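S., here's the first fold you wanted:
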Amino acid sequence: MTVPSRPGSDQFTLWNGPTGRTWVEHQAMIDALFAPFEALLVDAAVAVAPRAVLDVGCGAGSTTLAVARRLGAGAHYTGIDISDPMMVAAHDHAARQRLPVRFIRADAQSYEFVPAEFDMIISRFGVMFFDDPIRAFANLRHAAQSRAALRFIAWRSPEENPFMTTAERAAAPLVPTMPARVPDAPGQFGFADGRRVRHILEQAGWTSIDIRPMDVACVMPATALTPYLTHMGPLGAILRDTDPATQAGIIQTVRAAFDRYVDGTQIRFTSACWMVAATAP
């Protein structure tokens, strides 16, 4: 995810500390869970047939590499992310797959891109974390060629994504320090308000803006549920600093809250997202 790059800032510390390392450790689980969204962006790239693609908030590079595999050697591919652990993993994956993908460890909000370098910019849940999103998307427009395509996927509201907030809601009575979600703040649901997303893109100079709600069926193995709820999100961060006895009680309570999503050996739920498209002038 692309986040403010100031050393000492909350987001810099988050994604270059235990949270960033946890995402790398559980990358296979995360990528499998988000595979339907990756496929949507790969299809979008095929439709555009770009020559130079930028993946913003690329994480460990799964979507960047998927686009590179699909489009082949006729294009150039770049991923940008603030997280050192994720960038190390992305470089390793690219090398093992023998894909000529460039990865940049930097903040896309302020990075000095070569002007008009890219004819397509994509992101899978990587653009909701900017501290100044208008400035960030203006900087991305600066990096885009005239008529370049912007395609990204972002979460809709927490209320429309109950699976994503089940762990923190179930744990809240047991964890007084559980942080509250702040509307429009940088974070997972920072782009929940589609009208705000449109305003950001308009102010940043993008045109032909199309923001469509999209409900996507997601599946994960039931065996992945406990690792998911104990390592990801606000609860995962809190559990890292919780004593084993308290941790066990919290996990038992939270695990039971997910029973309605269990379907045999699988976990099934629907994700509510925005598919956003825009064009550089």
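And the second, which I think is the more interesting of the pair:
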Amino acid sequence: MISMPGISEIIVVIAVLAVIIGIGALLVRAFRK
């Protein structure tokens, strides 16, 4: 699937991980209320 990872692919992966972590943190904060 990933033959030659370029800078754009790395940026996309980092962006997706950041969004998932951000949503997870928001959910944890909401449930800990």
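Why I say that: The chain has one domain: 7-33. DSSP finds one helix and no strands in the chain.

Talk tomorrow,
H.
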